[in-house]
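Re: duplicated header lines in exported structure tokens

Our pipeline writes sequence and tokens for each protein into one text file. With two proteins the header for the second block appears twice in some exports. Here is an export where it did not happen, for reference. First protein block:
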Amino acid sequence: MRSSITACPLQYQGETRIKIELSPNDWDAINKIKSMPGRKWSRTYSCWHVPHTEGALQQLKILFGDKLEARQLESLSGERAGQAGQTGSGSGDSRPAPLQGSGYLADIQPQFRIINQYGSDCRIVVGDRLALLRSASGWIQAFVPHDKKNWIGHIKSIPGRRWDAGQRCWLLPMTAESIHAIQDFFGELAAFGFAIPEELPERWAPSPPHKRAAQKPRLGEPQRRAISALEEQLILEGKRQRTVNSYRGILAGLLLHYPKIEPANITLEQINGYIIYKKKSAGISDSTHNQIINALNAYFGRVLNQNDKVQKMKRPRKRRKLPNVLSKGE
């Protein structure tokens, strides 16, 4: 039984691939190979093989560590080192630079198929490549084939990604971090349908959270019971629905003004304070003032029988209209 896993070049159908030699009974290693994008099984050579890219080689090293023996693949590692030396500018940055406006397919389009899921038609992405387009808002649209679960897992690890249900794609920030994450993992399986800008922000910076507006107080259970009791009283009295709705709203306004006080325990001073607040803040008219008194009379007087409180509620003084005085000529 082979104790190590060997990776070496393989010419497969006119294309250079990385051949992986391992024991046919090493199921743990086989499952790891199956998780790699672009992996294929060759019946002719009786082996697994993956794309001949630096990203694929790096993923093999991550998956198998010291067990991996790479043969004649120095050119891939040297390619990465050469790029790092050119882009580092002496700063010690070993990350590769993203493609600068080249290596993209102008006519790349994602492939879709309609399937029936949960009793309704659903559109899914199919294919063997990751189609990448640029949205109108400047985000990267990543169309991941529906059956590539490990691809989806990698896309979810990219900072700032979010799902666009309408377009059936993942939206990735247009950053160097996103481009590197795509190139390193997918290699030649990533089909860019746009030219990568020369100037990109290094990382995704989330927008500052919006300040939430202060939540308005809500009616508690005692307040809701009070409003229901008033409504039932008005219905028994044969009031019109318009009056019922108006009185309900007035009582709700008072109870929301004193949310922590039981409705029956609201004092006359608090009622007067509420009316003064309404006059100052909303500039209510005398007719509205009278309507508030009528609604509170209905609740505190006829529902709670607190007649002493009702009798002391002050209505606005009626204004006398001066009579029209006729002149001698009139």
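Second protein block, exported in the same file:
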Amino acid sequence: MPPASSDHTIGMPAASSERATKVPAATSERATEVPARSSDQPTQTPPPSTPPSMHEPPRWLAAPVVLFFALFLLYPALYAIKLAVTDPLTGRVPVPDNFVALGSDALFWRALAGNVVLPLASVALELIAGLTLALFLHERFPGRRALRAIVIIPLALPEVVFLTMMRSIFAPRGYANAALAAIGLGQIQWLAPGSIMTMATVVLVDAWHVTPIVFLMLLAGLASMPEQIHEAALLDGARGWSRFRHITLPWLRPVILSAVLLRGLDALRMFATPLVLAGVEGAPVLSTYAYHQWSDYGNEPAAAAASMLLAMMSVALTIPLLRRRMVA
């Protein structure tokens, strides 16, 4: 009996050891098979759904803007072109009679000259004054913010209110002549019709009103200039005029071109300033001449022809500035 039990006890470990050796092998086979199945059949992720905010908006949302431009810009422009090339007596189209009639009017030539001189002088004065103020108020000193606010005040005033104040200042018995009389000087005819002083007064008032626009643009350009450039210039010995000419001015060139383009287009259509200060014939420009032909004489074709010439002048002067702006 003892030998039998000993054989039994000796055989059991052998069988269990065989199972023990077989189980890891099967497990290893499964372990090696699982990656093979996962590599053979890769999982496909569904395409990301586009959020609702990324969908293209309906095109009909632009309909109000298109309708506004069509009614208030496109239609009046096309109607004005039709009036300009239509014979007011026979209705024939197209005819140059309205443009020929403008050439025989002396006031038209004065308006055409004024539409060249006044914008050029006004934009030049605005650029000089705006650049000077921007360079001065860019420096750090006490009260700088208050002075910046004071400079912007003329722009914040409504145009009619501002021009009414200016007319009171430059009237024959206005504040300007009162100040001259207080220091013992004689009166000046600031707004005499057709005089050079009238043209200079219109330029001064127009520049005073809109110089803050140029000032803010140039001040923003100076603020965007890195301090490292100034420090490097100081280390290289560039100071004063040399630093302004070779560093500051080239940096501001794109801003200056943008300011000239913006203010040049706006100055070409100058209307309220010469009309309120000097009247139609005091300092005529093409816009006031067209208004004079329409309101005083009811000559719509002549008014349309003058307006068309003003539009063509604006386009002709804008294209070179746009090219230089793109190059800069």
